[in-house]
Structures are given as C-alpha cells and as structure tokens.
Write a structure and sequence with these properties.
By secondary structure, the chain is mostly beta strands. It is 0% helix and 43% strand. The protein has strands spanning 12-15, 34-38, 50-55, 58-67, 70-74, 88-98, 101-104. Strands 1, 2, 3, 4, 5, 6 and 7 form a 7-stranded antiparallel beta sheet that branches. It is globular, with a radius of gyration of 13 Å. The mean pLDDT is 89.
Amino acid sequence: MTTNHQHGTHTYVLRVSGDSMVAVNGRTYPEGCVIYVDPDQRAGVVPGDKVVAKVNGAMAFRVLEDCGNKQFLRPLNPMYPAIHEEFFILGKVIGAFYGEEVWDH
C-alpha cells in the first residue's frame, strides 16, 4: 500500500475502526479502511481537512471544522455527535486504501 501524495518521513497508517466516518454520500471511510496519517503536516491543517486527533487519551479520526474562533471535530456519519472537547491533532490524513482502491486527499 502506497500513496502518491507528498508525505513526511514520519507518515504512518491506521486501520479505521467503527462507522463514525461512514458518510451518507461522497467519500466514506468504512471499518477496515486504511488511512495514511502524516504528523509532519499537522501544523498546516485547515477546516475541512481530515485529521487524527487525541481526545481524552483516545485517538479519533474526524474532519476538522471551525465555528468562529473555536475548532471542533466532525464525524462524517450524522448519527455521531461532533467532538467539542479539547483535542490535540496528531496528523493530517493524506490518503486512504480500501479493497482495491487507493485515493489521495
């Protein structure tokens, strides 16, 4: 599994667990999907980027959003609530692999 996206030397992969990032339409990340995470790009993330963050000691894969001057983490699955607690971004998701398909962000 490789990605064509430019990435830092610390890039790693994670396997998605659960269905919080399963979208009703558009790009979706089902359980078992593999995501590429680049911690070297975390300082440059902007609202709309998909990120992996540390929340209350656990990791969360969500979309970074901005409401005024407050950032929060939004799942793609509307059945899950947004995360408004304090979080630390571990890295930007730069690509994904599922089945035979690889896509870059």
